[in-house]
Amino acid sequence: MAEPDHVLLETILLNYWNDHAQHLPSAKTQWLGLSYWQEFWTRRTVAEITPHEQRRFREWLAKRGTGTSGIDRILSVGRAALNRARKWEEVSRVPHIFGTLTADAKRARDPKGRPISPVELAHLIDAADSRHMLLFLLIAANTLARPAAILDLGPSQFDEAHRLVDLNVPGRVQNKKFRPIIPVTPTLLPWLRTTVGRSGRYISYRQKPVHSILHMWRLTRAAAGLDERVTPYSIRHGMARELRKRHVPTEQISLFLGHLPDGSAATTSIYAPYEPGFVAEAAEAIEEVMAKVRSHLKRAQIDAAAFDPAELAANTGRARRHGIGEKKREEVRFLILSGIPHAEVVRRSGVSGGTVSSIRQVLKTQIRLYRNTETDTSPDTCVPIACPPPSSDGEAIFQSLEKIGGPARIRTWDNTVMSGAF
Predict the structure, then answer these.
(1) Could you read off the pLDDT of 346-376 as tens digits, one per residue?
(2) Using alpha carbons only, how large is the chain's radius of gyration in Å?
(3) Helices (H) and strands (E) in the chain, counts
(4) Which of 169, 208, 344, 388 could disulfide-link 396, Cβ–Cβ 3.0 to 4.6 Å?
(5) What distance in Å separates the CA atoms of residue 209 and residue 197, rounded to the nearest whole number?
(6) What is the separation of C-alpha 261 from the centre of its chain, rounded to a whole number of angstroms?
(7) How far apart are CA 412 and CA 404, in angstroms?
(8) Distance CA 11, CA 110 (A)
(9) pTM of whole model > 0.85?
(10) 370-422: pLDDT as tens digits
(11) 34 pairs with which residues across the strands?
(12) Could you tell me if 97 and 68 are in contact, meaning their C-beta atoms sit under 8 angstroms apart?
């Protein structure tokens, strides 16, 4: 076994990546941490990782704008690489890697986002202007899942026969961020029954998986009038607090959150969810919270994930004695609610663009219209409003960007179903 002063740290880091870290679910985080270690400790041996040099390393990271938690994560990557090298007898001994936070300090840290109330959750849902953001909020509220688990969620994880959803995507190895199997609440059930597109995930944008919700979250949060402490984790924390207020057993809350006692993960995740009454009190409490959320919604409706454009077109709008006539107006409403782009609505209906825009504005005052961020050809994936219609060959109808716009307007495929400013 080699002595520390004969082993270059970069050799240990490289072996750790090739043999272990690249296969972890957190491979991206591992790679980033290893890159910092490699940059600072280039051509230095394990023996040179002294307490004094470690302090310099932490200061170097801080000067680069890395926060305390970020520094701790980077240090943990190097610590894991060194400990693995010792276990695999690549080096006889390794130094202790000091962290920036003590165990007590870690426990005393504020959560990643402040808990939000059912009223604030209703404000977020009302403020969502795209279908994928609306669905993210609903899944988060009904599963208490972490944001990454929500973005990974697909139909293959939904067991409709048993009304269960497995938050752990197939192929992912469970780690300390445990993703449990939990019951599907009545509120979430119709949304998980919807057809997804080529992305294979419920949360998608233009038929592609969404890897980060932060941009849309910030826009929705601002529209809802909430402060910056409200993060995607706030729903998880807020719902957990609501469950505690409703006297849900701690064990059930912990199971929903993926906080399992040591040694219980295997049996709990495989067998317990199929037991009658599994975490029933937690599921009932979530539904109670969602009922309270509904009572505070002003525009959004969350009871159905599908709608009939023809029925909706017939039951909306304002009766007028003059103009193009109610029958033609209903036709225009139907085209708009079916997700037809603005220019195509004008072409098919023979109505002027200004009249189509006027009808759309009236619709916006009566029902919640969502930006068309999907290109699925299945109409049952829509909420008011809208998905592009199927063409004769089954593909979605697209228009070039220059044909969609109009005077003093900037539009993309995302908002062709809506005219003017959002």
Answers:
(1) 999 999 999 988 888 888 777 777 765 554 4
(2) 26
(3) 19, 5
(4) 388
(5) 10
(6) 26
(7) 7
(8) 37
(9) no
(10) 765 554 433 333 445 444 334 434 433 333 333 333 333 333 333 333 333 33
(11) none
(12) no
Q: Give per-residue burial for 176-186: e unless 16+ CB within 10 Å, then b.
A: eebbbbbbbbe
pLDDT of residue 95: 95
Half-sphere exposure of 298 (CA within 13 A, CB side): 11
Question: Do 268 and 252 meet the contact criterion of CB atoms below 8 Å apart?
Answer: no
Cα 252 from Cα 244, distance rounded (Å): 10
Per-residue b/e over 40-54, b at no fewer than 16 CB within 10 Å?
Answer: bbeeebbbebeeeeb
Q: What domains appear along the chain, each with residue ranges and CATH number?
A: 4-107 (1.10.150.130), 118-296 (1.10.443.10), 309-415 (no CATH)
Q: Are 154 and 139 in contact (CB under 8 A)?
A: no
Residues 192 and 133: beta-carbon distance below 8 Å? no
With a CB cutoff of 8 Å and minimum separation 6, the contacts of 97 are 49, 54, 75, 78, 79, 82
Residue 168 in tokens: 């752990």
Tally Cβ neighbours within 10 Å of residue 198: 12
* Tokens representing residue 67 in the block: 């926060």
Phi-psi region of 350 (alpha: psi -120 to 50; beta: other; left: phi over 0): left
Residue whose structure tokens are 């959750």: 121
